[in-house]
User: What shape does this take?
Amino acid sequence: MIKTISLFFLILFLFQSQAYSQKDSILFYATIKNQQFEPLPYSNIDFFNKKQNGTVSNEQGYFKIKCAFNDTLVISHVGYKKIICPVDFVLANDTFNLFRTIILTDAYKEIEEVTVLAEKGKIRFRNYGSKSTDKAMALGVVSENLGYEFGVKINVPQKRNVKLEQFNCFVTSSNIDSIKFRINIYQFNNLDSTLNLLNQNYIITSKTKNGEMNFDLRDENIYLKGDILVSLEIIEVYGKGSIYFATSTLGSGTYYRTGKQAAWEKFPIIEVAFNIDVKLF
Assistant: This one.
């Protein structure tokens, strides 16, 4: 009789454990802050080793995301060390459940010294990328996909000092009230190798319905060399809808991904018309 009861409770325990592991998704929420307990707006929240859309924290560093107990989240922010958060472990932490706060620490990045040798009359201004305003084959982006990133590869001279001055693109149409993008610039070798050259967030807020978007970077002292990937990342949207960008059919295609942990993919032939103004020394 005792053995029968024990077996019954063992089966019941295994059944409950299996039901718990297969439980429907939960709503995980938290606020991301730095070591000074200041909110970190527009941090990236992605799933580790899963092709699943992540999200971006709001201006107060707050986010919420649907996930399972056995999921693992990757939290990252420009200029900070990314952390890996197993959902079940974090939820079991009493301190986290009390404050619902995730702290990121500074990531110190060594910047290569650039020696600018500018002789009189030797400074040149150039534009790289596509300046197309073609509306015939516009690239559309749906506003709900926070963290979605898309861009183009641009080659800049390696034997010159190349200083980034301005980022430009052309909106053919938009039915969104307002949208915020983060501009990212990566040293780009291949689809699996990208290093972000920017040490802080550079945000574009656009209400443009039709026309050129420009982002002045003259004061940021960003120097470029070789192949780079210039991208826009959706971080906040006011109103639902889509925004369309001019494209060029003469380029090498458009790169895109659904989050920082997702692999880059390439849409061939059609290239979103991003371009940069630079100063050559």
Summary: Helices lie at 2-21, 87-91, 94-99. The first strand starts at residue 26 and ends at 33.
